């Protein structure tokens, strides 16, 4: 069974192709990355350029895998994403145990949250249940009680940005198997078994945005999008050193560090300034330009968690950094200093095959999309046409919702 994950980002488009073996092992068999110039802050602003970047990325992955991709699980990011935790309630008749239908009724009530009409619901993810006041229940099916309550994390996206993303993917020749929030996909791609019982803050620092997600016992409990990312670091370098954006990006990738003490004090960088002249910059000075923007991103992430869940240092056990910007030397050390928590780089886990190719934080989302696709029930039995529309209609009706959610998350760890 072939599954493709398509991560359409601000600075790059990445396609990862996986093959699910009969024994349940997920092999990565193809990868392709193409520069993206058609998005701004995770939103399509140039349809033609985005479509072409998708085509290039998919074609590269197909050549490596030796297979043709016809459909994909597509990541959704950008500041148009909105999330909230909603509460649902269902009454249970006396003498009857709680059924899956009761669970779905409670979830459906939580899904009735009054989002803006311009938003489309992507995910309704149960956090925990309460039966007759008893908290901390993960799966209430079969239990006795008269009152079932549930907290559900809802993730919605702007209808306009979603429509443009769908059109770009379809014009590139692909069918959309599912749309998945990048925050959720990054967690699915990188969180390991040892973090199943932790509360983890995941920061996916991309080109135009930073996706902030808190996973509590492997379930997405909080998510938001910050309008800052690696491109803003590059812009700071370009502005302060008076060099073109492309040169600033090259210098950042090759010599950049998040902390001045990690830079070689003897190293002087030659840079191509505007007008064609050469300039010189000490490596520690470059790090002093980079550090403030990264500290701002970390500060805003902490603020988001503090406001939604309480003090970060009390609620969170570990921080995981993903996204291309996470590869900046010393970013994990800076995060550890500023947030006061253990920090690690989020490299994809739980897959085999081309692990050396995708074993970077930049591939976390794409691998997570493949894992999401691999866990979708009855993929092979469904007709290819209309799969995304059918899935969306089922979600709106609530049919089979709890069963699908349990299957996806139970297979992840």
From TrEMBL:
<dbReference type="Pfam" id="PF02491">
    <property type="entry name" value="SHS2_FTSA"/>
</dbReference>
<dbReference type="Pfam" id="PF14450">
    <property type="entry name" value="FtsA"/>
</dbReference>
<comment type="similarity">
    <text>Belongs to the FtsA/MreB family.</text>
</comment>
<keyword id="KW-0131">Cell cycle</keyword>
<dbReference type="InterPro" id="IPR043129">
    <property type="entry name" value="ATPase_NBD"/>
</dbReference>
<dbReference type="GO" id="GO:0043093">
    <property type="term" value="P:FtsZ-dependent cytokinesis"/>
</dbReference>
<comment type="subunit">
    <text>Self-interacts. Interacts with FtsZ.</text>
</comment>
<keyword id="KW-0472">Membrane</keyword>
<dbReference type="InterPro" id="IPR020823">
    <property type="entry name" value="Cell_div_FtsA"/>
</dbReference>
<dbReference type="GO" id="GO:0009898">
    <property type="term" value="C:cytoplasmic side of plasma membrane"/>
</dbReference>
<keyword id="KW-1003">Cell membrane</keyword>
<feature type="domain" description="SHS2">
    <location>
        <begin position="3"/>
        <end position="190"/>
    </location>
</feature>
<dbReference type="InterPro" id="IPR003494">
    <property type="entry name" value="SHS2_FtsA"/>
</dbReference>
<keyword id="KW-0132">Cell division</keyword>
<protein>
    <recommendedName>
        <fullName>Cell division protein FtsA</fullName>
    </recommendedName>
</protein>
<comment type="function">
    <text>Cell division protein that is involved in the assembly of the Z ring. May serve as a membrane anchor for the Z ring.</text>
</comment>
<dbReference type="InterPro" id="IPR050696">
    <property type="entry name" value="FtsA/MreB"/>
</dbReference>
<dbReference type="GO" id="GO:0032153">
    <property type="term" value="C:cell division site"/>
</dbReference>
